Amino acid sequence: MARPDTRELIGRLPPTFRPAVNDQLRNWEILFPAEQRLLEAQLDWLARMPPAEMQQLFAPLVEIESRMDLPRWSPTAAGMTVQDSGRLARSPLYPRWRDEVEKVFSRIEEAVEKSGRLRRVRRLLICVLPPGLSIGDQPLWPETAKQGTWVPLAEPFDCCLQPLTSSLAGRRLPQAVEPIEGTWVLECTPRLSAVVEADRATILCWDALAAARREFLAKLNTIRRDLNSVDQANEQLKKMDISRLLGHAAGASPQVREFVRSLFLSGNGSLVFNNSFVQWGASEALRRVQPQVLLACFGIRQKIKPFSGMVLFEDQTRANPVADDTDPAGSLVDGMILAEYVYRSAQRTSDHQEMPLTLMAACDVNRLLVLGPNVPVPAAARLTSEELTGFALRWLAG
Which of 22, 67, 199, 296 could disulfide-link 282, Cβ–Cβ 3.0 to 4.6 Å? Predict the structure, then answer.
């Protein structure tokens, strides 16, 4: 998809909009197809808007910005520094500015939705708790389960996971879905990457990205306590060649490479906690990539070592000499909560697409939770692995 020509339009946008739009256009080649389609549709709608209507749309926002102490961005400025963002957020008018921005985007999104330019395909989300959690009688997702149906399986879900993933990754994609939007897997350990070929799915594994995580942590630990230092470290990490640290599959794709970089720089524990990496990575993939199939496979985390939790950007396995010890009980709590976060992320990002069919399961349990609107729950007494795979593929093709 060609980058749109928006030079005239950007000059008519409010000052705080220009850096963000310029930044997206500057990085056009590393945006995912869904991001390109949405941005193009939004800018095209604005460009076709009569000048008087555009002035009316932005008038409340422009009035507020005129009374704020904003940085003096040039018309071609791309992105905001940490200092710029802090200056904006410290303004007494910031809450009102946020409200007006949300109103503007709500209007734009409503218009784009009505235009019919955004693609709709059926989607599938699978959230999986790892084996070895000793779940026992622990109820899984009791509140979320009220919105769906528990379906019995002929065997524990762990026996279904690999063949199901292999079949999903190998399916024929609809014409509206580009290869990079087909299947995404976020996992803690390389269980699924061992059975799915790299060219059939995008797989991001916490363990496999260890070298990249260490490099980022080392650089972030050099930050001094001032905003200039934060900006400098961010710029260095944005420019650093990380292809060699990601492996051939992820490193060869500019879009996936920059997705990983953004994932690590955006925080949310993705650099230091395996399950946070899966949750945040899955949520960002749902928002940005909008894959037709996404699997979020949580893992067993290590127990937090004494005092290491006080170190913001540190790998506790290196920072503390105490031997590592797994935490199945904490991992169960983490996994259930974070899986629900992913499910809610899918609900939030489904405005311009079909609400995905969601399967939530634990590897050691012989049932799964089926969530989604108007989903025909399988009638079999206990689904076999083959029946579960057929059910998922039929949903996607339907």
Answer: 296
Q: CB count, 10 Å around CB of 238?
A: 12
- Backbone φ and ψ for 35, nearest 5 degrees, come out as -70, -40
Q: What is the pTM for the complete model shown?
A: 0.88
User: CB under 8 Å to 203, separation ≥6 — which residues?
Assistant: 184, 185, 187, 192, 193, 196, 249
Q: Compute how many other C-beta atoms are within 10 angstroms of the C-beta atom of residue 320.
A: 16
Cα separation, 351 vs 162, in Å, equals 31
Half-sphere exposure (CA, 13 Å, Cβ side) for 16?
22
pLDDT tens string 162-191: 999 999 999 999 998 999 999 999 999 999
**Over pLDDT 90: what percentage of the chain?**
57
Nearest Cα to 161, choosing from 135, 127, 212? 127
* Mean pLDDT (whole number) for 71-96: 85
Largest CA distance in the chain: 67
Q: How far are the Cα atoms of 202, 365, 371, 390 from residue 378, in angstroms, in the given order?
A: 29, 18, 12, 10
pLDDT band for position 64 (cuts 50, 70, 90): very high
Helix (H/G/I), strand (E/B), else coil: 268: coil
pLDDT(307) > 60:
no
Number of Cβ within 10 Å of residue 71's Cβ equals: 15
Residue 323 CA, distance from chain mean position: 32
CA dist 361 and 141 (Å) reads 10
Give the amino acid at 222: T
* Measured CA angle at 189 (ends 187, 194), to 5 deg: 90
In order of their start, the domains of the chain are 7-115 (no CATH), 124-397 (3.40.720)
Nearest residue to 294 (alpha-carbon basis) of 286, 306, 302, 284: 286
For the chain, how many residues are written? 398
Of 133-137, 221-225, 318-322, 377-381, the poorest mean pLDDT is in 318-322
